[in-house]
Design a protein that fits this description.
Helices cover 26% and strands 27% of the residues. The chain is built from 11 helices and 18 strands. It folds into 2 domains: 197 residues, Quinone Oxidoreductase, Chain A, domain 1 (Alpha-Beta Complex), CATH 3.90.180; 144 residues, Rossmann fold (3-Layer(aba) Sandwich), CATH 3.40.50.720. Helix 4 crosses helix 5. Strands 3, 5, 6, 9, 10, 17 and 18 form a 7-stranded mixed sheet that branches. The protein has a 6-stranded parallel sheet with strand order 13-12-11-14-15-16, sandwiched between helices. The structure holds adenosine-5-diphosphoribose (APR) and zinc ion (2 copies). The site of one zinc ion (ZN) has 5 residues, from loops. One zinc ion (ZN) binds next to helix 2.
Amino acid sequence: MKTRAAVMYEHNQPVVVEELELDEPKANEVLVRTAASGVCHSDLSVVTGTIYYDAAVALGHEGAGIIERVGGDVSGFRPGDHVILSFVSYCGSCRMCQMERVCLCESYDVPRGFLLDGTYRLHNSSGDGILQMARIATMSEYMVVPQQNLVKIDEHYSLAKAALVGCGVTTGVGAVLNTAKVEPGSSVAVIGTGGVGLNAIQGAVLAQAERIIAVDIAEKKLNFAKTFGATDVVNASTCDPVEAVRELTAGLGVDYAFEVIGNPKTIVQAYNMVRAAGTAVIVGMSHHQSDVSIPAQHLVSTERQLIGSFYGSCQPKVDMPKLLSLYTEGKLKLDELITQHYRLEQINEAFADMEAGENARGVILFN
Ligand code: APR
Ligand code: ZN
Ligand code: ZN
């Protein structure tokens, strides 16, 4: 069958929206009609090569849709089901899965972007195989994905809002609640208050943090941050954010700092703005070849912790429906996250808006 998709052929060049041939789902695979795809910075990071794919790749890893057909050996899903796409495939039985750390599943040794049997489902008009970002590719009208990457949700949810739970919401809220396990009364700083960082702020609100300091270089983003629950804002383009955060915390530093950009410079800032025995949590995906340098003795003498958080340390099938329930209860903001809708053809415009800091989250809607 045919599908239209946003494809990255060359780094730092405009993304191409084109018609592709999509194979039928094989065993353990499902064909999904995409309803919406969020535009996340990680999509742009694939275009820039920060997150590296070996060849042409159909973009998108934050989406929701409706099941069209299922392949053989698929259980628990049927046509018509509403689903969120999770961007990890996990086996459920390896050591990490047994420890409920499914995002760190160690079972699949498949090169990035291929389906689990190591082959393509998407092909362009020249017959070349096209990879799928995160093995899903939500910036395509239709996708064939492993059944492990699907989370069934109630039909009454808006699929545009549910799409955001596929990455930004789960990654941001999960970093605070699952990875860091922030305690009530804590002081928290969030560096980078874009689509993911705003959700770290929401996570801090849910964790009943007392101080939530938003740090960004864009005034518009800091205004979004206030809407989402920041108690203080720091514009890092006009001051030293480490000093500013220390000043706001009686010179001590915060209990937790979340870096939600993916920049070695702001990772070091996060480390430097936590108090002794505090924790810096790195959420942003830095360039695959970049390193971070921190004062080695200081790490010991102040007992600070520097930890990573991937996909909010989530269990997709447990956490995603829970986050949607929190939305229903009025405890989680999803409506306010979406500040712009785009058509698939406008993907390059959506990336330009992201670089200009225009949106909380932009969302591509499919018909
Ligand atoms: N200091 C403070 N804020 C900064 C800086 C800086 N030096 N540089 C960029 N920012 C801010 C931007 O102004 C923007 O508000 O970081 C924010 C990033 O937000 P988005 O572009 O919306 O990115 P998002 O989708 O939230 O992703 C953030 O998480 O999932 C990962 O790969 C993703 O690494 C990326 C990160
Ligand atoms: Zn993302
Ligand atoms: Zn596993």
